[in-house]
Amino acid sequence: MMTTANQSAAERNITLVSVANIQPSNYNPRKRFDETGLDELAESIKQQGVLQPITVRPIADTDRYEIVFGERRYRASVIAGLEEVPAIISELSDEEAQEMAVTENLQRKDVTPTEEANAYKQLIDSGRHTVETLSVLFGKSENYIRTRLNFSTLIPELAELLDADVITISVASEICRYGEDVQREVYEKYLKEGIQHYSSWRGRKAKEIAELIEQKFTIDLERYYFDKTECASCRYNTNNLLLFNDGGCGQCSNRTCLAEMNAAFLKEKAIQIAQQQPDIILCRDPYCTNATTVERLIASGYDVETINSCIAFPKNPIEPQIGDYDNSEDYEEALKDYEEEQADYMEICNEISRQGEAGEITLYAKIGQADITLCYVEKTATQIAESNKVTQTIATQIAKLEKKDKRNKEIATENTVDDVKRVIKEIDTTETKFGADEDRMMYFFLLSSLRKENYAAVGIDKECDYLKDEEKMNVIANLTAKAKAVIRRDFLIANFKDAFRNNGTAALLLDFAKKHMPEELANITNKYNEVYENRHKRIEEKKVALLEQTEDAGHPQPEGVPQPIETTIRSSSLNK
């Protein structure tokens, strides 16, 4: 009977392999195994054996094997006490083993969302697949693949809640739009087990959580890195609306202004990096970036690459301050830790610098939602060899020199503009006549306030979200009287946003409305004046009643209170 079994196994290329010589693989996307399910499978294996062999591959220069797929059966066999398990031994490269492991395990029904996400990310990071090819390979839509890929950015605690069905896929999709700092705070304050019921976000719908996150996190000025000097006195800053504030930067209630200041800051910082370090490439993450900044950089002639994964530069440790510690011993210990961290930091930075000079890595400046961070991508041996080979050709060297020359010219122009911007503030322009060229310059900047519905009025036929510099230059080169009027009025309308109560802007707004929309203004004015007149009438009636009560009681009227008209008329009539 044993001989027959062995012959059958040989015919099917199945071999009995010692359990002691088998080890799991890092390529398996499944990281969690249900203990109850494993125990049930182990009991079944005790009764019937392993019905389906696992697949393994030899580990070079050893007598051991690595699991390609079938880790759950392997674990259950260990629990069941088997010394050997049936296995198919395949000679596979790392790439082949990874693809087989991921593909086979993703076909199973019990794969969790984060395991699926990490599996897709593995395949994309390998460089052999894109979202499009994965869509074809697994029969899923591209949007499905992208949604799952986003889950790979979840912090471990939130990933665990997703896999345990504590939060839904829709909720996770909203949370993973944000960085680790926001995710951490959302988990600690609102989703962690033990949070009081009225504060917990568990069980809430995705739309609710999206609104809550936006409300609580996206407008917090502490999370932005641009110069917030103007924000300190801005009427849209909540610190200026509260009698007592918490001492922070406050929260901005003008999201349009906040987004514009953030985008302008990011663009300026990106340009500075490109000017000062030409070897660093501007890039963006496909799932977490400031789209407005990227669009404006591209419109200004800068290249912005898209990368799926990279390695972040280390953060410079913060030196401890003696005032933050209760005693000198704690401070000395913290200072010692800091010095060790600083030494490690410098060592890593030096190694990154060496790798960059050797062409082993590509340096990037990644444009995020609120800041720009430095990162790098390691080149494969093939890429390094190809890079070295290409750089040896004369044509490539010439192209590289021409590119460098072009960049040097750009730097010269950029530095010229920067210096002129600084010096021009100091010159006296009060005595010279305002010229036609300056008039065109003024309209160039006024065009930033032009509304989309008026693009055609100034000669722009195509649809676009905003005017690029080239389009603005074309407009000011062909200005007509009508176009000038449209541009100036849209500029006024844009600045009327600051109209408030009876300030100067509000007065000008009403004058503008009286000229351009008299009927609409009259209707609006009458609507609120009618409300006021009704309220005023009731107030006068109450004043009359109070004064009559005073007269009936024989008390003198309060000084400074005028006698109502109705009372005066009635008193005069009685005296006649």
Automatic annotation (TrEMBL):
Q: Biological process (GO) annotations?
A: chromosome segregation
User: Which Gene Ontology cellular-component terms appear in the entry?
Assistant: chromosome
Q: Which organism is it from?
A: Bacteroides thetaiotaomicron
The answer to whether UniProt assigns keyword DNA-binding to this entry is yes
Entries under Pfam families matching the protein? HTH_ParB (PF17762), ParB_N (PF02195)
Q: Which residues form the ParB-like N-terminal domain?
A: 15-106
Q: Which Gene3D superfamilies match?
A: 1.10.10.2830, 3.90.1530.30
Q: Where is this region: Disordered?
A: 547-576
Coiled coil as UniProt keyword: yes
InterPro entries named among the record's database cross-references: Chromosome_partition/occlusion, HTH_ParB/Spo0J, ParB/RepB/Spo0J, ParB/Sulfiredoxin_sf, ParB_N
**Compositionally biased intervals (Polar residues):** 565-576
Keywords of the record, alphabetical order, are:
Chromosome partition, Coiled coil, DNA-binding
Coiled-coil intervals: 328-355
- In terms of superkingdom, the source organism counts as Bacteria
- Protein name, entry field: ParB/RepB/Spo0J family partition protein
GO MF terms listed in the record are: DNA binding
The entry sums up its family as follows: Belongs to the ParB family.
